[in-house]
Amino acid sequence: MELGIALPTSGPMASVANIKRVAKEAEDLQYDALWTYERLLRPMAKIMPGPDGELQRIPEDYRETYEPLETLSFVAGTTARIKLGTSIIDALFHAPVVLARRYATLDQFSGGRVIAGIGQGWMPQEFATANVPLKRRGAGFDEMVAAMRACWGPDPVEYRGRFYEIEASEVNPKPVQAHVPIIIGSNGEAGIRRAARIADGINPNAFSYEQLAAAVTTFHDAAKAEGRDPATLTVTARANVPITAGPLGDGRPYLGGSPAEIAGDLERLAEAGVGHVLFYNLAPDGVDNHLRLMADLRNRVPAAHRPGA
């Protein structure tokens, strides 16, 4: 199993200095990937249900969010081995040629280390800001993926669909990788089945072992039904939970708690077919404490899970 770590691109630890430090130390600790995500804006409107059932604004961490591909391009120059992923970019907010070229440029800068994690988006305010209708999700997303893959293929690039059209043209640069992996962020069955049809992997949130194991089964079964080999596809679980110095014990969130507790979760999860876990669970009390805990976790992961073992 591979392990990934989020860059501090939002929230109280977000800064250029911390992004650079976490990237360098994650690579030194033999983490497998660095991850960023996209948030266009934080609406003033109250759109998320709170604990008491009343609507509230989305979390304050979203008040400042560094742009994901710009960040990874900066990080590409400060690292040498570690993969660079997005979890996720809302693809429908971008023109296919523009987004494909940005990923290809990052792949060139990094020497072929890109993981293109994309999703459909959900926030109405962001769709309105991007001047894209919510109803484009689904068929429009399928076309986005097809058009991006066309851009990464040989020239002349040409694509004609219902929502997007690319006249026969040269579109460059091309990626270093012969096949840039696309993973789709989704927790629902329809999204998982879509990923099995058009993508190289899924990127669900980790709510429980049972939920992730069911997602793997659905994904693999759907891939087989499409005539694809599940062994060539990936499942990348995203943990949005806290990591703490001491154990949280009974009732703790899945893949959250102390490094020892998380390591125990990972042991079982590998057997379920999850190939990568990315930790968006930034520790409290600043970057020093966070990196100490992530180093502890890396050291506790059994040797069988380490890269190259």
Question: Any overview of this molecule?
Answer:
An 8-stranded parallel barrel has the order 1-2-5-7-10-11-12-13, surrounded by 5 helices. The chain has a two-stranded antiparallel sheet with strand order 3-4. The protein has helices at 16-28, 68-76, 96-110, 124-129, 139-152, 189-198, 209-225, 259-271, 286-300, and strands at residues 2-6, 33-36, 48-49, 55-56, 83-86, 89-90, 114-119, 157-160, 165-169, 182-184, 201-202, 234-239, 276-279. The chain is globular, with a radius of gyration of 19 Å. The longest helix is centred in the C-terminal third of the chain and has 17 residues, at 209-225. It has one domain (2-305): TIM Barrel (Alpha-Beta Barrel), CATH 3.20.20.30. The termini are close together. It is built from 9 helices and 13 strands. It is of the alpha/beta class and 309 residues long. Helix 2 (68-76) runs parallel beside helix 3.
Strand count: 13
**Fraction of residues in helices?**
25-40%
The total tally of domains equals 1
Quickly name the level 1 CATH class.
Answer: Alpha Beta
N-to-C order of helices and strands: EHEEEHEEHEHHEEEHEHEHEH
Beta strand % = 15-25%
The order of strands across the largest sheet is 1-2-5-7-10-11-12-13
- Cα-atom radius of gyration: 19 Å
Overall CATH architecture: Alpha-Beta Barrel
Major sheet details: 8 strands, parallel, barrel
Q: Kindly, what is the distance between the CA atoms of the first and last residues, rounded to a whole number of angstroms?
A: 10 Å
Residue stretches low in confidence (pLDDT < 50, at least 5 long) are 303-309
Overall spatial form: globular
Number of helices: 9
